[in-house]
Amino acid sequence: MTNVTLIAAVGSNGVIGADHDMPWRIPEDFAFFKRTTMGHAMVMGRKTFDSIGRVLPGRRTIVVTRQQDWHHAEVETAHSLSEALSLAGPADEVFICGGGQIYAEAMPWAHRLLITEVHQSPDGDVHFPTIDPHRWREVARDDQDGFSWVTYERA
After folding, report:
1. What radius of gyration, in Å, describes the C-alpha atoms of the chain?
2. For the segment 61-76, what is each residue's pLDDT rounded down to a tens digit?
3. What b/e string do you get for 129-142 counting C-beta neighbours within 10 Å, with b at 16 or more?
4. Is the dihedral of CA 11, 13, 18, 23 positive or negative?
């Protein structure tokens, strides 16, 4: 079975997006995301893919969309999360990269959460699902200036 990891930068208020974009720019976190996901499959929703605006090199991209006729020459398309995970596997690890709906749907599949806790509470229209402390335990924390990298494993 493929290990599913959710990777996200999350504000103190749970916000992950605003107006089809991230509400912050943290270069160190972009570098963390790149080195963590490099060489792996990434699953994301169409709106997230559109907000990135390009294919991220060195990673396999699977976009989940309900639009039957949507396609992009450099990515694979799935019409459900389960279809996307089937396309991705078998793999040692698959990263779920957003957005809010995909994170919420993927949470029961996940074995690990890599959360950048951003020490801001911006306005936003997309939120990360609540991390239930009865289901998830913090196993690592790396505090930085203005944010923390936190790893959770399923309890």
Report:
1. 15
2. 999 999 999 999 999 9
3. bebeeeebeeeeee
4. negative
